[in-house]
Design goal:
Blueprint: H1 3-9, H2 18-27, E1 29-33, E2 38-40, E3 48-54, E4 57-62, E5 68-74, E6 79-80, H3 83-87, E7 94-97, E8 101-107, H4 108-117, H5 120-145, H6 148-162, E9 168-170, H7 175-181, H8 186-198, E10 202-205, E11 208-211, H9 214-222
Antiparallel strand pairs: 1-8, 2-7, 3-6, 3-8, 4-5, 4-7, 9-11, 10-11
Length: 230
């Protein structure tokens, strides 16, 4: 696929006219990153944003003690690093290739010039930023109001919606990384997986997940239903 084909395939740019896609392709730069390679670090100048063509990218922050908090695991078609384009600030987190990844880089200055020439492009970005805000609000709600079983249930339901088979799928991150996303420790997460398995809600074999009782999983995620004490 050439740059134009990649631009057309990105959800953010769907609905745009052919000429708009061509203008975006002219300013885009293809970049490849090996697994573990840093794309940008927190505090770096926000010189542009990225679209994922293939692979996965981990977005995370580090505490002063070096503890990692994963914010997002981004996949094909998703956009990241867009906030500095509009705020004129530095990147607010770190981005690393979780696996070998192919990206498109859209330089900030060139993209802003396109928006000046064609303001309709900004509507797509506004929709993305609004969705990102809702996603962060949901994440904060999960971490502050839900117990760990509720957070895990919500994540599994979210992952199932992205999978072709809604009831059987593979996690695309390790359980240690999942624990970081959910704001807990691996030992606690393993105990909850075990409880859900013994109660017939899910079946977990390594990273392979099978949802056996979706209704109960939804109740745990949305209604605060407790796991049985067994």
């Amino acid at each position: 696929m050439n740059l134009l084909d990649h631009i057309v395939a990105i959800p953010l740019f769907k609905g745009l006219l052919r000429g708009q896609h061509e203008a975006l392709a002219r300013i885009s730069v293809s970049r490849s990153y090996k697994k573990g390679q840093t794309i940008f670090s927190e505090g770096d100048e926000g010189v542009g944003f990225y679209a994922i063509i293939s692979g996965r990218v981990k977005i995370f922050k580090l505490s002063p003690e070096g503890k990692e908090q994963i914010l997002h695991m981004m996949g094909a078609g998703e956009i990241f690093g867009e906030v500095p384009v509009f705020t004129g600030q530095e990147y607010p987190a770190n981005a690393v290739a979780h696996i070998n990844s192919s990206l498109l880089f859209l330089p900030k200055n060139s993209f802003i010039e396109l928006i000046r020439q064609d303001p309709s492009l900004s509507l797509n970005m506004l929709a993305l930023l609004s969705w990102r805000l809702r996603r962060f609000a949901a994440m904060i709600e999960d971490l502050s109001l839900k117990e760990v079983p509720g957070r895990l249930a919500a994540y599994l339901l979210y992952a199932s919606k992205r999978a072709s088979n809604k009831n059987e799928f593979d996690l695309d991150i390790s359980k240690g990384q999942l624990a970081s996303i959910l704001g807990t420790i691996p030992e606690t997460l393993s105990r909850i997986f075990g409880k859900m398995g013994r109660q017939g809600i899910i079946k977990s074999e390594g990273l392979r997940m099978r949802i056996l009782d979706r209704a109960t999983l939804e109740d745990i995620a949305t209604k605060g239903r407790k796991l049985k004490k067994i």
